Amino acid sequence: MTSRTSRSSALHDRIADDLRTRIGAGEYGPGASLPPMRELQAQWKCSDGPVRDALAILKGEGLITVSRGAPARVRIQPDRKEHSIAVTPEVAQAYKDLALRSEAERSSTGTVELSIGVPLSETEFSVTYEHVAANAELANEFKVKAGTDLLRRTYRTSRKETGKLMLFSVSHIPTFLIESNPALLDPKNEPWPGGHWHQLYTVGIEIDRLENVITAIQPTTIERQDWGMDHGVPLLCLRSLSIDILGRVVEVAYSTYPADRTEIRYTQQLTRWPDVPAKSPEES
């Protein structure tokens, strides 16, 4: 790997680029210490200021960790399969079909198992319900008047062993869609076997499709602490619209995932060309 900065660049940028290149080339592997501050100062014939600025850049990029009184280390990347977002028809159908299974099956299989394969017994679950007025954005999504009463539900699932977040989501549903079943307005009934798919099923709503958008956002200090995230790592935000068989948006949900431990898998099914026989490699 070669340096991307020119000699006219600021010294701290050149130091950062040199270290970044060495890390990318494997000279400093995951968990390895970078050269001490004094060694870098001697190498670059500078004061500690440019070196500190260079390390701050790499820390902000999520490449290194810096602790007081200890040398900077190359950050060990988490397993990206900790969170696996599978944007495929098969996965969505599995969630939907769970709503039609027996209560025993729905109670023993939840979002945590289907999403990241962790047994419910190893997790802590909490939820809060609030009634809020629809703002302009949500009113537009639900095709209702601004100020319409919505039920906002905030879900948190943490790992018992560490207390760190594993799943976090916020859901909005127009109250008038679900108020015919009072049980859906009571957080004491959570976690609901079969999730929101079964909740909506109890009021005669069948979800036809999901429309998902994924964006990256910068986490707050509290979010970093809750997830156990290092500096320089963004959050992925999955915004999902649940649309029923009548074409109505019946739920708007937001879920967040640390980008360094999340993989996104999706399938694009293509239509076969009509009347075009497949050729063997020899015929091509």
What top-tier CATH class of the largest domain fits best? Alpha Beta
What is the percent of helical residues?
25-40%
The number of strands is: 10
Domain module tally:
2
Net shape: globular
Distance between the termini: 38 Å
Q: pLDDT under 50 segments (min length 5)?
A: none
Run of helices and strands:
HHHEEEHHHEHEEHHEHEEE
Q: Which band does the percent of strand residues land in?
A: 25-35%
Within CATH, the superfamily of the largest domain carries the name Chorismate lyase-like
Count of DSSP H/I helices: 10
> Which strand order does the major sheet show?
4-5-6-9-8-7
> pLDDT average, as an integer?
85
CATH topology of the largest domain: Chorismate lyase
Describe the main β-sheet briefly. Answer: 6 strands, antiparallel
CATH architecture of the largest domain: 3-Layer(aba) Sandwich
- Could you say which structural class the secondary elements and strand pairing correspond to? alpha+beta
Cα-based radius of gyration, to the nearest Å = 25 Å
Please outline the helices and strands.
Layout: H1 11-24, H2 37-44, H3 48-60, E1 64-65, E2 73-74, E3 83-87, H4 89-98, H5 103-108, H6 111-116, E4 123-133, H7 136-142, E5 149-159, E6 165-174, H8 175-178, H9 195-201, E7 207-217, H10 221-227, E8 235-244, E9 249-258, E10 262-266
Parallel strand pairs: 3-10
Antiparallel strand pairs: 1-2, 4-5, 5-6, 6-9, 7-8, 8-9
Helix pairs in contact: 1-3, 2-3
